[in-house]
Amino acid sequence: MSYLFVLCAAGCVSLLIYAIWQLYRQLGSAETVYRDRPPRGFELLWPVVNIMANSFGGFMGATKRAALLARLKRAGQEYSLTPEQFMGGKLVSALGFGAIGVILASDSTKLVGLLLGALLGFAYPDIWLRDHTLKRNLLILKALPFFLDIVTLSVEAGLNLTGALQKAVDRCPPGPLLVEVNRVLRDIRGGKPRVEALRAMADRLDYSPVSSLVSALVQGELMGSSLGPVLRAQSDQRRTERFLRAEKLAMEAPVKMLGPLIMFIFPCTFIVLGFPIVMKFMASGL
């Protein structure tokens, strides 16, 4: 009887392993030949993310998918993750954080820990995507003035806008701005009109400094005016925006320091100043 039980258990384990292997083989892989490397967190759990994406990605509506794709474009992740894969990553994160919440919670609060962990895990990829987009936009804002200076000098030296963009790409340090401009140049070489390629970049980034620059360039292209003064004005404006942003952050610093100052520094100061006074009162019998 015991041998029969062992054989049945071994058969069940074998069937489970085979089922997991078939699930991994059919749903756990994704086409990565023409795609960029996924973010580190997604890459660590890539097969599980793809299983979730292929299993539950079809339940995502067209409107939700389009909105998520726009967010991935703004973050520069549209060639790393599909909307279905990003949603699969959210589900995997929810399961992982939910399990951690159950482990950390006491016996009476395991359900609460599960719910709170699952909610935090489901929201964490959105928080990461938002922070990554803000960081990328900041890098673009910092790189724009020098990039526009190179483009302006190239245009004033006699190059057309496409040649000036290529010259600026060759001279500027790598960054997200150069990735987007390189994509514009590839679109132009592929036959897309220059105005449409620039507008596509503005739509992808959905960032006001880039949208303002593209609007000025498109208007100059369509009107046939000289692009040198337009580019120089845009460069000065982007540099002014950088200084204004730095001044704004400097003015916000005292307000941000007020909370830690009241919560941590003031109590320690009062303890240091008040301790000798209290000790003297206690020594005098008061």
TrEMBL record:
**Record's superkingdom?**
Bacteria
Q: How does it sit in the membrane?
A: Multi-pass membrane protein
Protein name, as recorded: Type II secretion system F family protein
Subcellular location(s) of the protein: Cell membrane
Q: Which UniProt keywords apply?
A: Cell membrane, Membrane, Transmembrane, Transmembrane helix
Asked if the record carries the keyword Transit peptide, the reply is no
What transmembrane ranges does the database entry give?
Answer: 43-63, 258-279
Q: Where is the Type II secretion system protein GspF domain?
A: 147-273
